[in-house]
Amino acid sequence: MMRKMTMGRRVIPAALAVSLAWTVPAYAEEFVPGPGQPYDDATMARIQDNVLEYEEIGLLVDTYNPTLKNVKDTYSDTKDDYKDVDKLKNQIMEGSGSLADQAGQLSGMAGTFEDLLGYQNMVTPGTYAELVYSSEVLSQQAEQMTLSADSLSAVTPEMLKVKMVDSTRAALVSGAQSAMIGYEQLLLQKESLEDSITLLEEVYKSTQTQASLGLATENAVLTARQNLESAQAGRLAMDASEVKLRQSLCTLLGWEYNGNPEIRKVPEADPSRIGAMDPAADKQAAIDNNYTLKYNRLSYEQLTDGSVEQQNMARTIEDQTAAISSSLENLYNQVLQKRNEYQTAVAALELEKTKMEAADRKMSVGTIGRLEYLQQKNSYAAKETAVKTADLALFQAMETYDQAVEGNLSVS
């Protein structure tokens, strides 16, 4: 089944292809993008299939994301009319509203996760925090666009591109990546919950049997039933959250909201990436690439030499430069923390594996009961889920660090 676009279209509209051509690099040296074909044939085939892969997110945002398309269209319409400040303000405000709508989608996704926080370990605080962060990045970008429109007095096409296109694209890609990671985390938690439900069903049956023999109270039976029903209700909530997350990913990346793409797994974390991270060495790149700083430096050049406005902007740039250095160090420490958490989870799984193997042997010779065996199996499955979740968290932390170096780091 191929990708289904709005109105059943799979081919990129010609107008969109033209708007993409000025930003999209060729993916083979001999390929030169032209109207109607912004990518080479192999790349077009990848993004038009009905499969979502993490590595394709940037391409899909470039090609299909409606917010980015609107922002690019606005930029294309205004870059040659940048001296018409009133017109420009209105068009920037329109782009800001579109970006705010996209932020609202991610915020809604975070809300569905918040409802499950703390219940049966269905959703980790880290998963929820990442989605909140992504939605806030987009919200801040929309707010910055609004503020820049309100205070607009002099602007250049280069400033517009940084503010409207480059930073918006980075925030959307980051948000979609976090959403895809969150989706996989949710599936892991659903799988873990299924194991818990199997165990709770057995506990309920066992408690009923004990009560019939006078070995358990009716209150114990009631508690076991309530625990089972609560977990089953949690499964329904997770099913609903899965649908919402899938719909949000679809609308972010080019499918109809009710599309059914195959969503592949996020790549495993590669700890060797950490060796290439050095905040002291990377901070200059993070400063040079930061979209907010780029815009402010360009704005500084447009202000009257020696004016109060220029002096204020100089202090703002200095403060933001220091903030980027500090933030990059914090992001690196988070990477190290996530690596430690992953290693701890792996060690715990190894210990649990020994217990699981012993339980398997006992089960094969009949020296362990079904309930005790299921308890051990559930414990082992939980440790497996913890390792996979820690791996995703480490991957997310490394991605966030790299994105900061590439310029996508929010500064006040």
Short description:
This protein has helices spanning 14-21, 41-47, 57-64, 66-78, 85-114, 125-150, 157-212, 218-253, 279-289, 291-302, 308-365, 370-405, and strands at residues 51-52, 262-263. With 412 residues, it is an all-alpha fold.
Summarize the helices and strands and which ones pair or pack.
Blueprint: H1 14-21, H2 41-47, E1 51-52, H3 57-64, H4 66-78, H5 85-114, H6 125-150, H7 157-212, H8 218-253, E2 262-263, H9 279-289, H10 291-302, H11 308-365, H12 370-405
Parallel strand pairs: 1-2
Protein name: TolC family protein
Coiled coil: 183-210, 332-359
Keywords: Coiled coil, Signal
Largest sheet: 2 strands, parallel
How many domains make up the 3D coordinates? 2
- Helical proportion, percent range: over 70%
Radius of gyration equals 26 Å
Q: Give the strand content.
A: under 5%
Structural class: mainly alpha
End-to-end CA span:
45 Å
Total strands: the figure is 2
Strand order of the largest sheet: 1-2
Compute the average pLDDT.
82
Shape category: elongated
Low-confidence stretches: 1-33, 119-123
Q: Would you list the SSEs in sequence order as H and E?
A: HHEHHHHHHEHHHH
Total DSSP helices: 12
